[in-house]
């Protein structure tokens, strides 16, 4: 089911991109109702729309049927948050979100792999942590930028996904009493993600024997120097930290809207 959901979302994105004639900086779609192509609980879809409707990065929305799927298109602007996020001296990657539907499918994949908690590292507006909570997982959101954390707190009225304003490389993860967590690392390897991931991995290893998983947002774009060990830019870091790839799912993100290939999310665990 999850692979089909991902493929159907990619198809939906490509159809949307062909017909989109708006001028907004970011844009994405969320189906309005459960369907054969998107057999998602209606309550879950309603919560995803609630997140987008209440999120101040979106300034406009409208109904549109894409292919045969009734959707709502959300248009937004992240300039204010992007500029604020790069002002922090220890910031590793500026804010640039995945799609809400992609966050949901990524969290669903983590749940299917048996992980019990999701920790959204460099979480931006907290959409991955929010989606984890929608799916009944415990979740935590770690974000260094105070403006983004205040945004997240405004979205916790429906579901509390525990936003923390902190440098993820110094955060005390032992305070969360984690059992089987999976960490979603925000940022491409080539855009500060390696430094961020390295710091968090070192903190988790210092806790001791914690059965943890990792999710890395990768890229196959020729704009970036490829990693000699592959894994969409993460191979060298994974080898250095004795991590093995267990699954990869490609999903739409804001930064791939006009690109032919989506963002590969590499799921890994200790070898």
Any descriptors?
single chain, 271 residues, alpha/beta, Rossmann fold, 8 helices, 10 strands, 33% helix, 24% strand, globular
Q: Can you walk me through this structure?
A:
With 271 residues, this protein is an alpha/beta fold. The chain has a single domain, classed as Vaccinia Virus protein VP39 (Rossmann fold), CATH 3.40.50. It has helices at 2-19, 42-54, 79-85, 100-112, 127-134, 146-154, 193-207, 235-240, and strands at 26-31, 58-66, 69-76, 117-121, 138-143, 163-165, 181-185, 213-217, 243-251, 263-270. The strands form two sheets. It has a seven-stranded mixed sheet with strand order 6-5-4-7-8-10-9, with helices on both faces. The chain has a three-stranded antiparallel sheet with strand order 1-3-2. The longest helix is centred in the first third of the chain and has 18 residues, at 2-19. It is globular, with a radius of gyration of 17 Å. 46% of the residues are buried.
List the helices and strands and how they pair.
Blueprint: H1 2-19, E1 26-31, H2 42-54, E2 58-66, E3 69-76, H3 79-85, H4 100-112, E4 117-121, H5 127-134, E5 138-143, H6 146-154, E6 163-165, E7 181-185, H7 193-207, E8 213-217, H8 235-240, E9 243-251, E10 263-270
Parallel strand pairs: 4-5, 4-7, 5-6, 7-8
Antiparallel strand pairs: 1-3, 2-3, 8-10, 9-10
């Amino acid at each position: 089911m999850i692979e089909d959901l991902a493929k159907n979302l990619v198809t939906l994105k490509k159809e949307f991109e062909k017909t989109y004639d708006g001028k907004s900086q970011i844009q994405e779609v969320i189906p309005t109702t459960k369907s054969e192509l998107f057999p998602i609980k209606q309550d879950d879809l309603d919560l995803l729309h609630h997140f987008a409707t209440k999120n101040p990065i979106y300034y406009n929305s409208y109904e549109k049927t894409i292919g045969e799927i009734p959707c709502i298109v959300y248009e937004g602007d992240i300039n204010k948050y992007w500029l604020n996020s790069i002002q922090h001296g220890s910031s590793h990657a500026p804010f640039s979100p995945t799609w809400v539907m992609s966050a949901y499918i990524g969290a669903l994949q983590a749940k299917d792999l048996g992980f019990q908690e999701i920790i959204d590292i460099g979480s931006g507006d907290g959409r991955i942590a929010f989606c984890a909570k929608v799916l009944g997982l415990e979740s935590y959101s770690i974000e260094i930028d105070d403006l983004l954390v205040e945004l997240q707190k405004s979205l916790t009225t429906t579901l509390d996904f525990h936003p923390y304003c902190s440098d993820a490389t110094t955060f005390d993860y032992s305070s969360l009493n984690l059992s089987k967590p999976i960490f979603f690392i925000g940022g491409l390897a080539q855009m500060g993600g390696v430094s961020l991931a390295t710091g968090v991995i070192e903190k988790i290893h210092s806790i001791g024997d914690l059965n943890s998983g990792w999710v890395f947002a990768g890229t196959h774009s020729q704009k970036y120097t490829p990693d000699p060990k592959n894994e969409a830019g993460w191979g060298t870091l994974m080898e250095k930290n004795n991590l093995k790839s267990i699954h990869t799912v490609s999903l739409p993100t804001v930064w791939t809207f006009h690109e032919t290939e989506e963002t590969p999310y590499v799921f890994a665990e200790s070898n």
